[in-house]
Amino acid sequence: MSPTTRLALLAGAVALAASAQAQMKLKADTATRPAAPAVAANAPQPDAASAQPAPSANAEKETAGKMAAFGWLTLLDRKDWGTAWDSSSTIFRQTVPLGSWMDAIPKVREPFGVLVSREPSDVVYKTTLPGRPDGQYVTAQFASQFDKGIVDEMVTTMLDTDGRWRVTGYTYTRR
Fold first, then answer.
1. Percent of the chain with pLDDT over 70
2. Residues in CB range of 156: below 8 A, 6 or more apart
3. 87 CB-near residues (< 8 Å, 6+ apart)
4. Going by C-beta distance under 8 Å and a sequence separation of 6 or more, which residues neighbour residue 99?
5. Does residue 169 lie in a domain region?
6. Order of strands, edge to edge, in the sheet holding 115-126?
């Protein structure tokens, strides 16, 4: 395995570890929440409009991060590898050299085939990720159907130094 391929795999592993840690923290946070109080049988039931969950305090950030992730994945779907690298975060570009990226990403993505559909399945905002400087991060998970199978994609974005949400990590799992 060439040194550039090792570097690309290392960057992917770092992103995977950070994303997995964020997922575990989210699950732990959810598991430790107190149970909702029981509702009396004769209590008035809320109407459909008020039954919707309250938006997250970070909903705008989650939406912005998710949209940046979705746009970046679209570049990968179009095989626009160079633009995807160019539009990634400063940290990503410093960690993954362009040559390594251009060698590795086609080998990762081309076996998926053509995108059929993609739906976000989970979006989480965090201010810390293991192995990363404190900042603002959004990890978005997508269930992506390709003509050669289903792939769960996890994209971590960050609010970069220029004030834009940019990708800082990408991992996937084939089902």
1. 68
2. 15, 18, 19, 22, 69, 129, 137, 138, 139, 140, 167, 168, 169, 170
3. 71, 72, 75, 166, 167
4. 4
5. yes
6. 115-126, 137-146, 149-159, 165-174
Report yes or no on 52 lying in a domain. Answer: no
Q: What is the pTM of this model?
A: 0.69
For 139, the token pair is: 């990890």
Mean pLDDT of the chain: 79
Q: What is the CATH number of the domain that holds 151?
A: 3.10.450.50
Domain count, the chain: 1
* 152 neighbors 173 (Cβ within 8 angstroms): yes
Greater pLDDT, 161 or 48: 161
Residue 37 lies in a domain: no
Sign of CA dihedral 39, 45, 49, 50: negative
**Residues of the domain holding 105:** 3-31+59-174
- The predicted-structure confidence for 32-59, as pLDDT tens digits, reads as follows 444 444 444 444 454 544 455 556 789 9
Q: Please tell me the predicted confidence (pLDDT) of residue 157.
A: 98
